[in-house]
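Risk register update: the risk of archive-format incompatibility is retired. Evidence:
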Amino acid sequence: MALLATRSWGAQEPVPPGARNPGARNPGARDPATVGTVDPATVGALDPATVGALDPATVGALDPDPRTSGAPEREGSRQPGGMRAAVHRPQAEPLAVLVHGVTSSSRSWWRVGPALAERGYRVLAVDLRGHGASPRPGSRLSIADLAADVAETMAAELGADPPGSPRPAVELLVGHSLGALVALELVGVHPGLARRLVLEDPPGPRSLDWAAVAAGIEADTRLAATDPTALRRDLAAANPAWPPGEAERRVADLADCDGQAIAAALRAGVPFDLPALLAAADLPILMLLAEEALGSALIGLDRKAAIEALPSGSTRVLPAGHSVHREALDAWLAAFDAWAAAPG
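Archived output:
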């Protein structure tokens, strides 16, 4: 197991009385669209490789360092060997924990984190092993390994063993893609750890060509290191629904992750049974799926089986590709708000 690098939103912001109810919007919180805006003069402090990938038109919209975007309010301190030490602080409720997808990082939640903070959550996003600023993976990168890392990091963050808490330690657990599988593994191993679970476009075991995924990871991470400007341009052109600055952050994520190790771990396929994981999860679940025609990672019979494993009304299909929160944040939040407000 490994302690993971994290970033957080909401913990240091004043919360008006009554705004601690999960899902309740805090009208006094910062507008997510303005979090992290900077004067272009700060660009000189950026990593040179990242600066080369920036579109001048978007520089003013970026936070001080897109390689650590989201205006983190708490991160571990660097220790020898690349480990990050956990920073202990009093537990605050409600807590939302966000788990990103493959080759992304906690940075990818730069709009979701502030939006959930507006709704009264303290938000903690992790960098999975081999991603972002977390330790490199070595030979261990299974879903069970990744879930164990998240559990250890949460325990360090909370100052206690979450499964031993008298009430759920996490009000809301959110996972995208690979992170959705990690989240399902986590609640399966630690029943009662979380009260609610949001799964964003989890992959189906037969929906992906894992060898092709691995080859794409190797190509993209190599290009992020050798020609970030070209990669940013290609990503922006291929994803017109992304907001300004998203392509830059995606390039930074790819540059930060251990592409070779991740590709090696995925090339032969990832063993998991999504319908079984869904059926075994004993908590309310909202599954937000991308449209199949737009690039969902859950298609065909895999998709049908996953939807049928959940109670009726637990699934929403949103007008976006695989990275739903990047492409259709308003629809993502609207679906979440309706679900969070529902009784039960």
